[in-house]
Amino acid sequence: MVASLPERMTAIGFDEPGGPDVLVAKDCPVPEPGANQVLIKVSHAGVNRPDVIQRQGLYPPPPGASPLPGLEVSGTVVAIGEGAPPEMLNQPVCALVSGGGYAEYCLAHSGHCLHVPDRMPMDEAAAIPETLFTVWHNVFERGWARDGETLLVHGGTSGIGTMAIMLAKEFGLTVLTTAGSDEKCAEAREIGADLAINYKTQDFVEAVRKATEGRGADVILDMVSGDYVQRNLDCLAEDGRHVTIAVLGGIKAEINMAKLMSRRQTMTGSTLRPRSDEFKALLADEIHNHAWPLFEDGTIRPIMDETFPLARAADAHRRMEAGDHIGKIVLKVAAD
């Protein structure tokens, strides 16, 4: 079922990996939805660290995904493919996508969409899916976090960090976080962190031990890896869970296995993008049932940094790489 749509669209992509300047406007065909897919007329697209890493040539899209960057969008469903619910047509949604978000139109699996309520601005809707799906799966499913426990999340003012703080607090966790300046620590506390540690001036291992009276954090959400891993384990509680979602500090780590065994610690990790459509649909269902109501009623709203027009995607990437942002950077795609 396809409405009257243009044949061509403007998108942002790159021909060769490199710095932000390789991002250029492209004239592309409007994609057609296949089985179980919907076509979204994009209002806004979220900008995420994986977009930057893809642009650098270090994170290729999975087979079958769009080569264009962009892992989350908001907008209106304008066409549906076979097997997609017909009632989704003309509905406002936000969606987790495997690529293609930096464009006027984007395909999404119908099961990876969440309905956007009237009260939710579309820029905020675009800033939610990637971080929400990532945090829910890794903190609550892989990390088994539960009320009364303590979570340590690194990079508390990043998109992932801000989402993790807010979501964990709503589900009854004590949240400790790290950030790279006193100003960012103050922002993290304002967002809801119980303790924010300036990792440039404090030893976060000692700070976590002190805050937990020597017991350690029950769950650690790690985006750094490298030499952070053993330091994390040193402030992880007995029976604690260490969950890695990125390797910004290096892909290799040396750990003391004897300590890990004696403290019965668990290490795990995941990347969401290459997981199957079926897995992501099940994850979306769980989020819809347990977390999405907090966004629908405004209890949780994403922390927004800066919005750039689609044509200035390179500037959005520069801001992310500078590391000065607080919360989510988004691109405005649709014209007013």
UniProtKB/TrEMBL annotation:
Keyword Protein transport: no
GO molecular function terms attached to this record: NADPH binding; oxidoreductase activity, acting on NAD(P)H
Domain Enoyl reductase (ER): 18-331
Keywords noted in UniProt: NADP, Oxidoreductase
Record flagged with keyword Nuclease: no
Pfam family, one: ADH_zinc_N
CDD domains xrefs: p53_inducible_oxidoreductase
Classification via NCBIfam families: quinone_pig3 (TIGR02824)
Protein name: Zinc-binding dehydrogenase
Native organism: Qipengyuania pelagi
Organism classification: Bacteria, Pseudomonadati, Pseudomonadota, Alphaproteobacteria, Sphingomonadales
